[in-house]
Amino acid sequence: MKKTISEVAPGWLAGKTVVVRADFNVPLMGARVTDARRIRESVPTIELLTHAGARVVLLSHLGRPERETKAEFSLAPVATELAGLLGEPVTFVSSPNGPPAAEAVRRLAPHGVALLENTRFHAGDETNDPELAAFWAGLGDLFVNDAFGVAHRAHASTSGLAEAMSARGGEAVAGLLMARELRFLEEALHAPERPFMAILGGAKISSKIGVISALLTRVDRLLIGGAMANTFFKAMGLHTGSSLVEDDSIDLAKKLLREGRERLLLPVDCIVAHQIAARVPTRAVTRDQVGDDDMIGDIGPKTRALFAEEIGKAKSIVWNGPMGVFEIDGFEEGTVAIAHAVAAACDRGALGVIGGGDSGAAVDRAGVADRVTHVSTGGGASIKLLAGGRLPGRDSLTDRG
Length: 401
Ligand code: ADP
Ligand code: MG
Fold this sequence. Notes:
2 domains, Rossmann fold, six-stranded parallel beta sheet, binds adenosine-5'-diphosphate, 401 residues, 17 strands
């Protein structure tokens, strides 16, 4: 087990400077934060520290700025949003490192909060540059990693910083959000009440198809929807028309079909259209009736019923990736139906954990977010953890004494 911030004595924190890696990778429209969930979720950790009299230095990445200091990837809008949530000023520092960052931290008063600019404005974050990690570690007395969303990455601002802090004799502990994420996911992972079911969908096929194999050894049932199902359809020799298919993964899909057998459940019908857009004519067809000009945009009504029935039997459920292009009207019904089925299972006492940015948004859209056990802030990280992979962001933390 890893040490968490709640195990650090509040008295010790008074007057200390604490470096916190948060996950403020939020969607922006201009200078406006359109979904503040991740910022809101980091508030308890920040307030625990400021209430104890610590100075808080926040680090986060936002998007993939490709090393340039592009305004559209600035964390400045996050500082404004966070200040509103905290009801306290947040000092925004327009550089993630260097003398301006060091100087701003030196001037910070106890209880004060500073947010440094996007860590990925320095190329060394993603390459895990030890000098950059040491610079950030040198800003404080303690490192708190609350960025579960990037726990599967070994970057300078995550595991590099934890290691650098340990090297200078300091501790690296999990924040409250990180601790909660690990608790729910590890519970689902280590001793799930059975039947244990995973539901996978979404579009990031190549990154997720690899975990299916690992998940198949752990779960009793694996339901597949979204664009990922299309690759399986093609592997089964079905026509997928102009649907999104990952041809490079077809051989792997064939292998998984052989390994998974009755544990792997694919859609039996789908919603198709000639183009995936709002207000286009759509049809529900069985999976062997997809035409050359058709694009599969959602699971069909028979599959909704079939999947809901299966979900009703499960005691533990992990779900990552929507069943269709739920952002577009006409292709959302499959995802909404699955969200309701998972919520109903949780109402009856099942454990339901949802991971993934889009899946979280879908659960919000279906209006059931408060009925599921846990909506994770980390898609890639939760999937990697469930598949038994290593999480450098967690592994680099100080062991519980
Ligand atoms: P998450 O963010 O939950 O991990 P992903 O990012 O992998 O999920 O996938 C979400 C995206 O998958 C959504 O934008 C959705 O429109 C898309 N998607 C789902 N089903 C299909 C499909 N059949 N064809 C194309 N895109 C799809
Ligand atoms: Mg996504």
